[in-house]
Sequence to fold (272 residues):
Amino acid sequence: MSAAPNTQSNSARPPRPQAILTVQDVTSITPNLIRIRVGGEGFDALSINEATDKYVKLMFADPRHGLVPPYDLTELRENTPEQLPRNRTYTVREVNEDEKWLTLDFVIHGDEGVAGPWATSAQPGDTLVMVGAGGKYRPSPDSPWHLLIADHTAIPAVSTALEAMDAEARGLVIAAVPDEADRLLPETPDGITVTWVDNDDELIAAVRGLDWPEDIPQVFAHGERETIKTIRKALKEHDVPRESLSISAYWARGRAEDQFQAEKREPIGKID
Fold:
């Protein structure tokens, strides 16, 4: 995330507390997916909500700088901005407030990125710093049907949404996940149909080719930015109102997250 100017005003939002958590266990779900459970007393610094797409911002400091959390981001931004931790956004897969832990799923792309390599080498006892949680979507039991559109990055949110649905829920999941080994979802209500596709082009085609019932669905659509922009146009053709829609980009092709987050404030980053 790009550094903001250090300006103070009465309306400035105070920094959110940093939760300093400990890795409790690491599980390899598939060759490309690692699930990590973190918890501890630092869990109380999180603000957990009821959204099924709840997400946290992970903070990765370069170990060469010797920084110890909680990080003084204002001091770092003013004096040594090159040492600022890098932020990465991840959806919470599962949370247990009573036992003070949550799980995160990491998609691994070899040595690419920041979070994936960290997850690959993570061991119980390691520290993970985060802030959050954000998120707004939760499937409504009053919706006549549900349409969930996702790529691999949104599968944790889709999984949590399916687990939160009533047994009588109806709808469709369309998900672009290239590797069949990674096509994992929890048990779905009988009225939910799951369609897997190989890539974003097929995802767009599947949305455009839907046989739409007359009723308006509640829609969850999250994934790559340009793909989601195209899907938004298709949804408008079916008069899906904004209030029935949870839609955003989780990432942008060719962009690291810092640039992707900065572009959210620019025209290129707008979905709707």
